[in-house]
Amino acid sequence: MTTLFDFSTFPILTTDRLILRQLTRADADAICAIFSSPEVLRFLNNDPVDTPEKAVSMIDWLAQNYHNHTGIDWGITVRGGDNRVIGMCGLYDWDRENRHIDLGYHLLPAEWGKGYATEASHALITWGFASLDVHRIQADCTAGNDASERVMIKCGFTFEGIRREHFWEHGRFVDNKYYGLLRHEYATLGS
Ligand SMILES: CC(C)(COP(=O)(O)OP(=O)(O)OC[C@H]1O[C@@H](n2cnc3c(N)ncnc32)[C@H](O)[C@@H]1OP(=O)(O)O)[C@@H](O)C(=O)NCCC(=O)NCCS
To answer: Is 74 in the pocket of ligand 1 (CB under 6 A)?
Structure first.
């Protein structure tokens, strides 16, 4: 029986190379750097977070999601480093009735290709299945976001389908690809 996470203490997660910690308003510049980068926004339909004020609003909104028990977002920092946030990852849109939650990740381009998103995602998936009463963890990306898709595949997710022309992104409709990992599949991963 899973002991439900009660949101009383923020769960700091540690991996071989990373510490995933709560974001604070002091991380506004880092959030700005990530979410104003054209490379990061390439496959997202988000407006750029290009001022410290917008970054503070975003951090406050994420804190509100935590407060409302609908999602948990972590700042990604490098172990043994200066505590600077180099990316974000999260479990969000927790649907308690249907027992699923979404996984997401975003990193500064300078940190891409080091396996950090996969490492952080593994930690979130392990924590999520251990701490939340979820039956599935799901993720999705715009078709063409091959790095994101690769992260899902490396984490053991199964491709579930495409919604055609589902999002309006950068002036055109784009297809969206869906992936999922079921609790019993997670339990047999690596065996
Ligand atoms: C998606 C993202 C978080 C991946 O971060 P990362 O730390 O570089 O990911 P990892 O290093 O763990 O894994 C990336 C994998 O994709 C592969 N990859 C990267 N770019 C690729 C491309 N253009 N085509 C195919 N594969 C690619 C890498 O080779 C690696 O796979 P491998 O380990 O088998 O070689 C990062 O690219 C990012 O922040 N993108 C912008 C935000 C975003 O789109 N987030 C996802 C929203 S759905």
So the answer is: no
Q: What is the pLDDT of residues 95-122, one digit of tens each?
A: 999 999 999 999 999 999 999 999 999 9
CB atoms < 10 A from the CB of 170, how many?
13
Partners of residue 139 on adjacent β-strands: 179
Mean pLDDT on 157-179: 97
Would the CB of 116 count as within 6 Å of ligand 1?
A: yes
With respect to residue 3, please indicate whether it lies within any of the assigned structural domains.
no
Domain count, the chain: 1
Instruction: Provide the pLDDT for residue 135.
Output: 98
Residue 154 included in any domain: yes
Report which protein residue has its CA nearest ligand 1's atom 21.
147
pLDDT at 4 (0 to 100): 85
Q: Exposure of 129 by Cβ count < 10 A (0-12 exposed, 13-18 middle, 19+ buried)?
A: buried
Whole domain around residue 176: which residue ranges?
Answer: 13-188
CATH of the domain at 99: 3.40.630.30
What single-letter DSSP state applies at residue 46? Answer: P
pTM above 0.85, yes or no: yes
Is residue 145 in some structural domain?
yes
How many whole angstroms from 38 Cα to the centroid of ligand 1? Answer: 15
For ligand 1, atom 25: residue with the closest CA = 146
